[in-house]
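Structure first, sequence second, as always.
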C-alpha cells in the first residue's frame, strides 16, 4: 500500500508533466484533475512512467472536447 500523499514518477514523465503544466493546461482545474489522476494511479505504490501519461492527462480528443466546452462556457478564450 502506498503511504498517503506520496507520488513516484520517473524523470521522463516528470518532465512531460511540467511541459503539460506550462504549455497545455488552460485552467487550475486542469492541474487539479492531473493531480487527482496521479494520486489515484499512485495508490498501489508503483512508479509512474510515460506509459501512464494518457491515463493521467487523458486523450487528445478528451482534451480538445474539454477545451471546446470551456470556451463555450466562457471559462477560457
Amino acid at each position: 500500500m502506498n503511504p498517503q500523499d506520496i507520488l513516484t514518477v520517473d524523470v521522463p514523465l516528470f518532465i512531460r508533466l511540467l511541459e503539460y503544466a506550462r504549455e497545455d493546461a488552460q485552467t487550475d482545474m486542469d492541474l487539479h484533475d492531473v493531480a487527482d489522476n496521479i494520486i489515484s494511479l499512485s495508490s498501489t505504490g508503483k512508479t509512474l512512467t510515460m506509459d501512464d501519461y494518457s491515463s493521467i492527462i487523458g486523450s487528445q480528443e478528451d482534451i480538445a472536447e474539454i477545451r471546446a466546452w470551456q470556451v463555450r462556457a466562457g471559462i477560457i478564450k
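Margin note: The radius of gyration is 13 Å.
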